[in-house]
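# nightly structure sweep
# worker-07 picked up a monomer target from the shared queue
# config: single-sequence mode, recycle default, output format = structure tokens
# input follows
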Amino acid sequence: MKPQDEGTLITDKPTGEGIKAIAAKDGITAIKIKSGRMLLAYGFLTKVFQVFEHYETPIDMITTSEVAVSVTIDDASRLKKIVDELKNIGEVEVNKNMSIVCMVGHNIMNQKGYINKVFEALNYFPLRMISYGGSRHNISILIPTEDKRAVLEALHKSLF
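# output follows
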């Protein structure tokens, strides 16, 4: 956002704290599979993942609750077949035209205050998914693509 600045040095030796970069990926489809049978059941996630394996479709993000699992994919070429098969497992909801926004830095999970800055910046935007803690170095969110530019500007203003 500041082309007059020096630029970015990429190295294997982290310096400083905080979020260092923000990137966005468009063309994302979110799929939510909800089932009362998931509660206290084993094997539910295995069945869900087997569908994606069968159709050779990688998953980008995953979130779970007691009765639902949400995943994102960036290749919707087999979406209809995937959804048809997932309907045998539970109720399926699909959201298209989504974007993943990922914030990265060194060990940000253990640094106090950064997650607050992120959520304060995102206070007025709908968040479909949040992935935090899978790695100590990133926070990912899923948003409608139509909000991407405003989300990126809000995050830059808050974090940099």
